[in-house]
Amino acid sequence: MPPALTRDAVDADFPAAHSMDTDWFAVDRDGRVALFDSGENGAVADGSARLDHGLALDDLAPHAPGSVAADDVDGLYATASPGHEFEYPRGEGRLVTFVRSLDVVADSLASGEAVALAGGKRPAVAWVRDGRDALDRLHRARECRRCLLVEHAARTSDGREPGDVGVYRYAHAPDAGTPQPYTRVQRPSRPLHLDALPAPLRAKVGAVRFADVSFDDDARVQPFEHAPSHAYKASGWCGTDGEVHAVPGSEAEFAREYGVGAGDVLFYAVGDEYGCFSNFYPAPVRLKGRVWPTTEHYFQAQKFAGTKHEEAVRAAKTPMLAARMGRDRSLPLRRDWEAVKDAVMRDAVRAKFEQHADLREVLLATGDARLVEHTENDSYWGDGGDGSGRNRLGEILMEVRAALRAGAGQ
């Protein structure tokens, strides 16, 4: 088990002051078990088994395969505050420091005051003994990149951490206003499998299963993407793709908080409810006497109309590759592109919904709702994520909808 620091002091009302501090279990597609620490506002899967609700790590310990906990160094880095004024931490746990180079802590490593943590992209050390003087020097010299106190409140009665009983550990980012994906912060050397537990315990721990997740492979997990979930005082949640989505049942509050009007139809990812409005949606269109795999292929290729690059973009294996080719400024962009790009987009969108009856039904079924490409990645075609963007793709979709409705009426 990793070394621990001695407790100096701890706030009397912690964690009671943070009413959503919850440790809950989930199982991945392979039957591995993970414990999620929600912090103040991480999402919690509905119906999940929770520590201190008739369940403890001691219940799992007799069935663990002799595992040893190992810090996920990159995960710890992601959960540490990027900027800080150093104050030696209070609490029980181990202090981890990310440094510019292990050379700056060579003396501490040589003396055994600290140990290097392996397996991460960034050099880091864990402090075995009280390293106040060394840490103070690191911070005065601006050699510390991030530091955090790793505290696993969830332990067995004999002090073992989740990884020591075969359980993966995920933590939520501190002080995150919008529920973020959890980050894996600890791995077991030998994972506990759900089938190793007796039936009553197996049913309790396995109440939530993420069928598309591997705790061994997926360093980040957003519960909302895999199961009905909830989060403390949150109307939106951030996906692993960086996009913010409404918490089911909180759409009106989400609209006010994130700059989207109530009743608006939001779209972005192909897998969303209105994913067919995305240019990445796999709906081939016939334009200019050729078939284009997606409207994204057509739109990006028209930046090089009449050149060999047009056909190269059309042949791209995925819409993402087509988009990358279209944004490659080493290729000769047509001079009138800014003047014609809206018309090109309109032609592509019109063709998609004229040539695909099923998609046309989805578009017409939105009635008079405002259509919004909701993403912070684009402030011209999308809304910029906060309503400040032009939302030109949404506007063109509404124009095409009106034209299709008028045509149907005639």
Q: Biggest β-sheet: count, sense, barrel?
A: 7 strands, mixed
Count of DSSP helices? 12
Low-confidence stretches: 1-19
Form type:
globular
By oligomeric state, this entry counts as: single chain
Number of domains: 2
Provide the β-strand percentage band.
15-25%
Gyration radius, rounded: 26 Å
Mean pLDDT comes to 85
Number of beta strands: 19
How would you characterize this protein structure?
- The protein is an alpha+beta fold.
- The chain folds into two domains: 216 residues, no CATH class; 135 residues, Tetracycline Repressor, domain 2 (Orthogonal Bundle), CATH 1.10.357.
- Helices cover 26% and strands 17% of the residues.
- The strands form six sheets. Strands 1, 2, 4, 9, 10, 11 and 12 form a seven-stranded mixed beta sheet that branches. Strands 6-7-5-8 form a four-stranded antiparallel beta sheet, sandwiched between helices.
- The longest helix has 19 residues.
- The radius of gyration is 26 Å and the shape is globular.
